[in-house]
Amino acid sequence: VVAFVEVDGSTGSETIALPSVAALHQGYPHPAAAEMRFPFSLSKRGRARIDVFDARGVFVATAADAEFEQGEHTVRFDTSRLAPGAYTLRLTSDGEQTTRTINVTR
Question: How does pLDDT run across 58-90, given as a tens digit for each residue?
């Protein structure tokens, strides 16, 4: 995608990279105690769902389940109800899935 920008009265073009697949980025703060933010990107507009699983693979929560525009997004998730330990996040969007591991501390 090429975007046209104006800087100091002159017009130029800038190439902007858009994601080619759904991606789940490292959450922060990491490790988390009370709340974590999960940045993710989508290759196109559509429904995205982020589920949280404990170390045994048992579903514990849904952090997000909504329609999102193409591009970068961040979801806030309350980790205060989770026991300390390792968890897996799974982003599902448009038939694509990606995972990432997070840690919760107290």
Answer: 999 999 999 999 999 999 999 999 999 999 999
pTM for the structure as a whole: 0.78
HSE-up of 104 (CA within 13 Å, CB side)? Answer: 21
- Sheet containing 23-24, strands listed edge to edge, beginning at the edge strand earlier in sequence: 23-24, 35-42, 71-78
Of 104, 22, 97, 90, the residue nearest 59 (C-alpha): 90
Q: For the chain, what is the largest distance between any 2 Cα atoms, rounded to a whole number of angstroms?
A: 58
Residue 22, helix vs strand vs coil: coil
As given in the structure block, the two tokens for residue 75 are 């979801």
Q: Both tokens of residue 35?
A: 């709340």
- Residue-wise DSSP of 53-82: E-TTS-EEEEEEEEEE-SEEEEEEEE-TTS
Which residue, chain included where needed, has tokens 């046209």? Answer: 4
Which amino acid type is present at position 65?
D
